[in-house]
Amino acid sequence: MSPTPEGTARAKKAWETIRRKQTENQIKAGAAMERASKAASDIMKSEEAQKTKLSLERDLQAALRENIEQLESGLVIIDGGKEKASPSGRIDILAMDAKGTNVIIELKVGKASLDVIGQIQSYMGDMMAETEERVRGIIVAHEFDAKTIAASKPVPNLEMRQYKFSFTFRKV
Predict the structure, then answer these.
(1) Nearest CA to 109 among 58, 37, 47?
(2) CATH code given to domain 54-162
(3) 32 exposed, middle or buried (CB, 10 Å; 0-12, 13-18, 19+)?
(4) Residue 1 to residues 7, 11, 64: CA-CA distances in angstroms?
(5) What pLDDT, on a 0 to 100 scale, did the predictor assign at position 60?
(6) 34 or 99: whose pLDDT is higher?
């Protein structure tokens, strides 16, 4: 049996309707994803999220200040227990290594992005201008994206260290 012209027209119209509905659904899904992405971005930019991030960085800084030897044997904090102001910003921790070299430690909560490389290099440049001595840098973060890792490789006096949490419990 061959299809009738009437049947072919109905099938063609049905397929056009199906394709139109699929396109409409894809457009709706894309718009929903865009709204969800914007909402997530707005949440992360919210004052509460920024306060939480700042609080976590302070906690990380306090923990590292108490246990600086865990980062590198022989490190001694030399910033008087507070962030050191420099022309480029505030240095999270300024330390000296066992060889007497100044070490700038930059902390990032979560994933460190590419901009941290420029940030720590500017702090290192400020310190070199101030002391006229060699300076090292250490970036401490939970994760590093691929671009950040690649950008750090040509800087011989820059290291990246990943932190992990470890809890201890004591009876009260």
Answers:
(1) 58
(2) 3.40.1350.10
(3) exposed
(4) 12, 16, 81
(5) 85
(6) 99
